[in-house]
């Protein structure tokens, strides 16, 4: 009788659970049983592992074989357990020393020819292994760079089962024949899932992103964009077609500072699980930008799918920008599903297979036309939409959703003078002010779990960091008259702190609060746009 064990990792959302892979050989009729809540793709590993071992020159044991995945209560999905199962079977058959794999974490899919194919979710899997105390991890060669991002873990990248067996037995490592030059590498097919990242863009170099200087005019909208980037405030842009709403939203990621090391690992883990991490770029260092089509379903927006939920657009936009163009055209239920992640920064999805928590701390930008034809309230008043149609169209964005949006700006049509004028301020200059404002906020919030003004609870702002005396007078009047909710007052105060940070002031004054009220309600407060800065 032979017994051996090793370890792999099961992914539940973007969190990993270390799984012990046990192999037991007993006399009897040759059979292969896999237990431990495997899904369909994992159950098929019996045929992949058998063929991979035989084609790698190893003898398949002609005994009763049982492979167990523990803990059995955790659902296991995917083909990433193949390498661990093969090594456990070989160790049970005494083809390799069981002690050499007992403390290894093995992640990878096996091809029928014995090659180790890359899989999605390597980074969160290695993070889970490191947190559990494991120091040695074996992954496919193509994902070794991604696994090496985790500190304190020794990573071995292998291209075939033959190579791994040679390393474990101290035998000469065979050289795998490289693919012909110019031919696409089929091994990379496991890293990217076609269609999984539709509407998602990972920013490259800062110089490749669209520049804010391309936007003509729109002084108020440009200010709102700067405030949104500096404080992490959600933004609603309303205006006729062609005014520049989409142009403004596309340039917002270029104003955000580079991700910190911890934020980069969070974003990379989500994109690795989703299968949209670009090959050769294991670490995402710039804020992502996700712009789903208005026909997107609720599952594709907040996460879902068969079995355990997969990351949706809100998770793919984690630490970045989620842009919903033509927002009233989205399903009402789909939009209202955003209310919980907007407040908590995460999505909690419950399914029969389990409950999954997915990160979703994003900056949301909504864009909408004033009416179906887009010409309502513009100069010339050429809109022919009935008033009932206009009310129905505008009511598709619910009050509770809009109450969570800090900045609401009317984007007016661009005038001839603005089009012929010189280019506006470039993104680099605005990004420098945003970076300085974020540093001021971070210095003020040091020692707290928050780094941006939009994350600070209202109670803390009112009791711990006080604005200038009398600064909240106008906001308090609006609250008493019903123009602001209690949540709205807190969000106005957060925006005022961001305006003060941009201006370099120690705390917001009445001008900052009035400008924050104007940016939220659209009602003029007598403060020139940009005058408070």
Automatic annotation (TrEMBL):
SUPFAM superfamilies membership: P-loop containing nucleoside triphosphate hydrolases (SSF52540), Ribosomal protein S5 domain 2-like (SSF54211)
InterPro entries in alphabetical order: AAA+_ATPase (IPR003593), CHLI-like (IPR045006), MCM_dom (IPR001208), Mg_chelat-rel (IPR004482), Mg_chelat-rel_C (IPR025158), Mg_chelatse_chII-like_cat_dom (IPR000523), P-loop_NTPase (IPR027417), Ribosomal_Su5_D2-typ_SF (IPR020568)
Family membership noted in the UniProt record: Belongs to the Mg-chelatase subunits D/I family. ComM subfamily.
Entry keywords, A to Z: ATP-binding, Nucleotide-binding
Transmembrane segments: none
Pfam families in the record: ChlI, Mg_chelatase, Mg_chelatase_C
Source species of the chain: Streptomyces thermolilacinus SPC6
Molecular function GO terms recorded: ATP binding; DNA binding
Full protein name: Mg chelatase-like protein
Ranges where the MCM C-terminal AAA(+) ATPase domain occurs: 312-407
Keyword DNA damage on entry: no
Listed PANTHER family: COMPETENCE PROTEIN COMM, MAGNESIUM-CHELATASE SUBUNIT CHLI
Domain of life: Bacteria
């Amino acid at each position: 009788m032979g017994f051996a064990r090793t370890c792999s990792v099961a992914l539940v959302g973007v969190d990993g659970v270390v799984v012990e892979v046990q192999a037991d050989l007993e006399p009897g009729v040759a059979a292969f049983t896999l237990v431990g809540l495997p899904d369909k793709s994992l159950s098929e590993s019996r045929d992949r592992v058998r063929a991979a071992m035989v084609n790698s020159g190893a003898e398949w044991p002609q005994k009763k074989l049982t492979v167990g995945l523990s803990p059995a209560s955790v659902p296991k999905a995917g083909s990433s357990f193949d390498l661990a199962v093969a090594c456990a079977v070989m160790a049970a058959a005494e083809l390799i020393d069981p002690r050499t794999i007992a403390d290894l974490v093995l992640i990878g899919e096996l091809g029928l020819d014995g090659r180790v194919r890359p899989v999605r979710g390597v980074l969160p899997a290695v993070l889970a292994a490191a947190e559990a105390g494991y120091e040695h991890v074996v992954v496919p060669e193509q994902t070794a760079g991604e696994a090496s991002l985790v500190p304190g873990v020794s990573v071995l990248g292998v291209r075939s089962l033959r190579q791994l067996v040679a390393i474990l037995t101290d035998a000469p490592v065979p050289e795998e024949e490289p693919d012909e030059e110019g031919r696409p590498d089929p091994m990379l097919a496991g890293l990217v899932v076609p269609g999984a990242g539709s509407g998602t863009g990972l920013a490259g170099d800062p110089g490749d992103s669209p520049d804010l200087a391309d936007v003509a005019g729109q002084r108020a909208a440009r200010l709102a964009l700067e405030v949104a980037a500096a404080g992490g405030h959600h933004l609603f842009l309303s205006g006729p077609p062609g005014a520049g709403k989409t142009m403004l939203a596309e340039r917002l990621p270029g104003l955000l500072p580079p991700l910190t090391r911890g934020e980069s690992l969070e974003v990379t883990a989500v994109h690795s699980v989703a299968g949209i991490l670009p090959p050769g770029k294991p670490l995402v260092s710039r804020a992502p930008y996700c712009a789903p089509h208005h026909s997107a379903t609720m599952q594709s927006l907040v996460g879902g799918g068969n079995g355990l939920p997969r990351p949706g657009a809100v998770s793919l936009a984690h630490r970045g920008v989620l842009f919903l163009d033509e927002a009233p055209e989205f399903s009402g239920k789909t939009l209202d599903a955003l209310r919980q992640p907007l407040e908590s920064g995460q999505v909690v999805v419950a399914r029969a297979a389990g409950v999954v928590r997915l990160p979703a701390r994003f900056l949301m930008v909504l864009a909408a036309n004033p009416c179906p034809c887009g010409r309502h309230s513009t100069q010339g008043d050429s809109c022919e939409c009935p008033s009932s149609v206009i009310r129905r169209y505008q009511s598709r964005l619910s009050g509770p959703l809009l109450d969570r949006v800090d900045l609401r700006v009317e984007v007016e049509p661009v005038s001839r003078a603005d089009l012929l004028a010189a280019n506006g301020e470039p993104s680099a200059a605005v990004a420098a002010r945003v970076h300085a404002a974020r540093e001021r906020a971070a210095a003020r919030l040091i020692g707290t779990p928050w780094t941006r003004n939009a994350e600070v609870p209202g109670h803390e702002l009112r009791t711990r960091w006080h604005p200038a005396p009398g600064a909240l007078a106008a906001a308090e009047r609006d609250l008493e008259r019903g123009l602001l909710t209690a949540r709205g007052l807190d969000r106005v105060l957060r925006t005022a702190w961001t305006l003060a940070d941009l201006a370099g002031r120690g705390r917001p004054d009445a001008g900052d609060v009035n400008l924050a009220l104007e940016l939220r309600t659209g009602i003029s407060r007598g403060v020139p746009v940009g005058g408070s800065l």
